[in-house]
Design goal:
Keywords: Kinase, Transferase. It is a single chain. With 284 residues, this protein is an alpha/beta fold. Helix 4 crosses helix 6. It has helices at residues 33-45, 80-86, 96-108, 171-182, 188-196, 200-224, 234-239, 246-253, 256-259, 273-283, and strands at residues 2-7, 11-16, 21-25, 51-56, 59-60, 66-68, 91-95, 114-120, 124-130, 133-134, 228-232, 263-266. The protein has a 5-stranded mixed sheet. A 5-stranded mixed sheet has the order 10-9-8-11-12. A two-stranded antiparallel sheet has the order 5-6. The longest helix has 25 residues, at 200-224. It has 2 domains: 2-98 and 273-283, Nucleotidyltransferase, domain 5 (2-Layer Sandwich); 110-267, 2-Layer Sandwich (Nucleotidyltransferase, domain 5). The structure holds zinc ion. Zinc ion is lined by residues 147, 157, 159, 161, 164, 166. Zinc ion binds at residues 147, 157, 159, 161, 164, 166.
């Protein structure tokens, strides 16, 4: 039996080939490298899987080395694929959003020639699947869509640069937009809830968020010419009711040729999105 594993800073989520799901809390280990690796190896090996796909939040090279994981410092520099092979496991290791994109193609969208998945939550990440194959770049770090500049000299991003898409389209981005409009310090979900109640500043903040998201997607469509853009992630999930005109607006913004046949959809795979993609990798 094969399984997909999504290694995050708070939980490790597992999806088995037969549909079984498991979720293990790991936050208590996430700063202690030895304890964290021991625990995730236990979880990965549990049940003697025949092959595993592992999704990791962070810069992951094509050789399965985690260069840097902003949310899981214990994984920085870890040669995860070598470690799994050393344990006798047949394994594939990939960045989490690339996994999410591949899972979407593998389980739902096999007719898509170029599928772009954009996940918005704490940060903004993207994954690309071209003709059924994840596109990772030369070293594994392609699709850093969150860190392309949409405003020269703009707001400071988590990466330290200014004006990145993520500086506007992320939890902290939305919180900052709202703070500047209202003078109030609120969490992303509180702002979304206020927008749902019709509060003027919250609605305005959501609109600013959308305008930047549209610019980011327009740039991506002009560069990559996808036939499908899949929107995923916690913040997108919460804001869905404000985003229904996104496809129409995006199509009106891009050139006619890439607009032809372009679809925008919301991912339906929820919190096991990345584990599902990791499973898809194990199945191929
Ligand atoms: Zn950035």
């Amino acid at each position: 039996m094969k399984k997909g594993i999504d290694v995050g800073g708070s939980y490790v989520k597992v999806l088995w080939e037969d549909g079984r799901r498991e979720k293990f809390p790991v936050r208590e280990f996430s700063k202690d490298r030895e304890a964290f690796l021991k625990r995730i190896l236990q979880i990965i090996k549990e049940g003697n899987p025949e092959k595993v796909g592992v999704s990791v939040a962070g810069f992951t090279s094509t050789e399965g080395v985690i260069y840097r994981s902003p949310n899981i410092p214990a994984l920085d520099g870890v040669k995860l694929l070598d470690l799994l092979k050393h344990e006798g496991l047949e394994a594939v290791v990939m960045n989490d959003v690339s996994c999410g994109a591949f899972g979407e193609w593998f389980f739902e969208e096999r007719n898509s020639k170029v599928l772009l998945l954009v996940a918005v939550g704490t940060g903004l990440g993207a994954g690309l699947v071209i003709e059924g194959r994840p596109f990772l770049g030369a070293r594994g770090s392609a699709l850093e869509l969150g860190h392309h500049i949409v405003e020269k000299g703009g707001k400071v991003c988590s990466c330290g640069r200014k004006g990145c898409l993520e500086a506007y389209c992320s939890s902290y981005g939305l919180e900052r937009i709202y703070r500047e409009l209202s003078g109030k310090e609120l969490k992303d979900y509180e702002i979304v809830n206020l927008a749902k109640e019709g509060e003027k500043e919250a609605l305005a903040a959501v609109e600013v968020f959308k305008e930047y998201l549209l610019v980011g997607l327009m740039n991506a469509v002009h560069i990559l010419n996808p036939d499908l853009v899949v929107l995923a992630g916690g913040l997108i999930e919460g804001m869905k009711e404000f985003l229904h005109d996104l496809e129409e607006r995006l199509i009106s913004m891009v050139e006619r040729l890439p607009a032809e046949g372009l679809r925008v959809k919301f991912s339906s795979c929820g919190e096991y999105c990345m584990a599902r993609g990791a499973l898809a990798l194990a199945l191929t």
